[in-house]
Specification:
Blueprint: H1 8-12, H2 22-36, H3 46-67, H4 69-79, H5 94-113, H6 116-143, H7 147-179
């Protein structure tokens, strides 16, 4: 029999909303993990050990989802039947897609020129857009319960987070190249 796991927010006893107290989440996670960690069940029977391992795994998964703005928002949207990625997802506005292409072109050009200032400026621009997107997600979910609008913003946030990772890698590559004297 598969154990029934509580919903992520309920598992940690925090309100089901986008804006959360991450300190409270971390404290609740540690408390739950201390109760279900497999080491506590080392002397138990195989079924209890397996259940503890499954619950511990579930707590880890829940924590990873809830501590990430994008994953938490996607989770909340999916709970309301909204598709945030793949076939059937809410489409992104054309202007955002065009801006996304411009950002990628800017990054490629800055990489080619090894222009640290341009990469840093792009990083600031993307981070400002990311923060504005998070604000819109919070309003859509917590303010007006418009999960369709939130799902579109979650998709935008996924693009921004990926681009942020690409920018971070470009910065690391640039720093590595400077350190190695290239």
């Amino acid at each position: 029999m598969t154990p029934q796991f509580p919903e992520y927010f309920a598992l940690f006893g925090i309100p089901q909303r986008f804006a959360i107290d991450t300190g409270q989440l971390t404290r609740a996670y540690r408390e739950v993990l201390s109760q279900v960690h497999p080491d506590r069940f080392a002397g138990a029977g195989p079924a209890e050990r397996r259940a503890a391992m499954q619950m511990s795994s579930h707590a880890n998964e829940a924590y990873e989802v809830l501590r990430s703005d994008g994953a938490r928002a996607a989770y909340l949207c999916r709970q309301q039947g909204q598709i945030v990625d793949g076939a059937g997802a809410v489409p992104l506005p054309l202007d955002f897609l065009e801006r996304q292409m411009q950002w990628h072109e800017q990054l490629d050009q800055a990489r080619e020129r090894q222009d640290e200032a341009a990469i840093a400026e792009l990083a600031r621009d993307v981070e400002q857009n990311r923060l504005a997107t998070i604000t819109r997600i919070a309003h859509s979910i917590d303010g007006v319960a418009d999960y369709r609008a939130a799902a579109a913003e979650v998709r935008a946030l996924m693009f921004l987070d990926k681009l942020g990772g690409d920018i971070a890698r470009a910065t690391t590559e640039r720093n590595d190249a400077v350190a190695s004297g290239k």
